Amino acid sequence: MVHQTADASKSEEPTSPRAGGGPPGLAEGVSPSLSGEETSPPSELFLSGLVESLLFVADEPVTPGKLAQALERSEAEVQEALAALQALYQETGRGLRIQERNGRVQLVTAPAAAQAVENFLNLDLTTRLSGPALETLAIVAYRQPVTRAQIEAVRGVDCSGVLRKLLHLGLVEEVGRLETVGRPILYGVTDQFMQHFGLISLEELPPLPAQDADALVAATELAEETGEMAAEEVKETEEGGRETVAVDREAASPSPDSAHPSSEPPVNE
User: Fold this and answer.
1) pLDDT score for 13
2) Paired strand residues for 100
3) What region, left, alpha or beta, does residue 198 occupy, with left being phi > 0 and alpha being psi -120 to 50 degrees?
4) Do 45 and 128 meet the contact criterion of CB atoms below 8 Å apart?
5) What is the pTM of this model?
6) What class is the 47-121 domain?
7) C-alpha angle with apex 209: 203 to 211, nearest 5 degrees?
8) Which of the two residues, 179 and 54, has the higher pLDDT score?
9) Which residues does residue 235 pair with via DSSP β-bridges, in sequence order?
10) Could you name the CATH architecture of 131-222?
């Protein structure tokens, strides 16, 4: 499991649960005084603070383009703000991270806080996975999107049961269909997978040894080629069957003469 650990030697300012107060430097305004004194309205947030606010209220991962549209700023500016937030969270030992997958981002808790979150919410986030399940997950993560046939080509065994379990746990999901015979389901990892293994992006996956990476590519490509060959065979069989049916129909159809016999009476010689 990959985790990013915060620097415990750095002192942190007390923060309220969730986002109250926010990281220093994100807002220029002053929070209302607890003593009841009159305070001036908070000044405008920096762009990074606005981006953080939108991520906080978003109920699902969003694209930087959608954030830019809501803030009426360019996507490049939003990307810079996201990078600044990510750096701030990591450099100051904050409990939040920005997770990115498939061009979408969301605000998540830091991997190092997983145990505390689990205890606080009384959850079981440390689901133990079997060896076959971990092998299947690795294949999906490194070669997604993949079909079940491609996974089985790598592992050499039936993977239907393992895939059902991973789908049930929310670690993999259906991401489409392969345009070939039977249109098999394509699988990919989920945001839950990212959180389970403490990943901010798929780029943080540890690199495979060259030999293993080559074997993985070769096996999945072979399975894909086999599927394409099977599709061609099915197509040729279907076309051959249609031609045979057409010939049979032509042979069985009556000739014009037999279909319309002459109505003239026979001539008596």
Assistant:
1) 42
2) 105
3) left
4) no
5) 0.54
6) mainly alpha
7) 130
8) 54
9) none
10) Orthogonal Bundle (1.10)
